[in-house]
Amino acid sequence: MKKLKYSIAIGLILSLSACNKEEKADAYGNFEEDATVVSAEGNGKILFFNAVEGQQIQKGDKIALLDTMQLHLQKEIVQAKMSVIASKANSVEKQIAVIQEQIDALKVTQDRLHKLYDEGAATKAQVDEVDSKEKILKEQIQAIKVQSKSVLDEKVGYVAQIKQINDLISRSVVYSPISGVVLETYVKEGEVTGAGRPMLRIQNLEELTLRAYITETKLTSVKIDQKVQVLVDAGEEKESFEGTVTWISDKAEFTPKQIQTEDERKNLTYAIKIKVPNKEGKLKIGMPASVEFE
After folding, report:
1. Cβ 212 vs Cβ 29: under 8 Å
2. Which pLDDT band, with edges at 50, 70 and 90, does 134 fall under?
């Protein structure tokens, strides 16, 4: 009988101790996925795909390469058109140069006739004729310049097309936007993909985000950039990680089902997010944790 009483007493002490430990926690939550979905920006067959689930990828690593043959052919067509335009522009410049030479030669005669007219040695008709020739030649140059502008405008359009094609070609190479671990892949080498289609999902596991929930009474105890202790199960003990509060919701919500008891799930709480450095990679997505405010 004494042994039974002793066992019950020990059990109560352990239970109270466990409850006290639970009471210390100011918030509860789970580490959430904050992955980056990498999508194709171009269209075409996947010639190269270098990503497998669980693989560590660095920012800037080449992940995939799409077929760009059609883009290169389009570029060659535009470049051929630009060559024709360049030839037209050169011809226009030569025409202007020839007419300008005629104007320069006519200018000598024009100056001489004007001088003779002032001296009474030339007629008004002669002066008008040479002036008329100069005017016609200048009008021809203006007409050619208008034609030249049309050619140059066409060239500008082709230059823009080449820039666009070059941009599409560059987008055919897919690089990792972050350093992290590949959580899931959605395509395979040899498949045909399109712009906007997801190719893989990457998560930076060096720092995880804990989404936790606090009651209204705890709301005044937490602020942005505050350092907190995040506790996770490590066998029979708890392992502590230092985290930083990065977000506090301004709206109350019902606590998610996975948090605490059924009664507590009925309470309105406020969500917070805590960035936690994942030392030695011990923290996992979905892992539950408790939080103590310092």
Report:
1. yes
2. confident
Q: Cα separations (Å) of 243 from 80, 92, 219, 277? A: 60, 71, 17, 7
Same domain, 141 and 265: no
Q: 222 and 265 share a domain? A: yes
Residue 90 is classified by DSSP as H
Domain limits for position 226: 25-34+204-293
Nearest 5°: the CA angle 237, 243, 245 is: 135
Statement: the pTM of the whole predicted model exceeds 0.85: no
The confidence score (pLDDT) of residue 15 equals 38
Alpha helices of the chain — where are they, by DSSP H? 2-24, 69-119, 124-170, 262-265
Do residues 198 and 52 lie in contact, with contact meaning Cβ atoms separated by under 8 Å?
A: no
Contact of 174 with 65, CB cutoff 8 Å:
yes
Residues 6+ apart with CB under 8 A from 221: 26, 214, 293
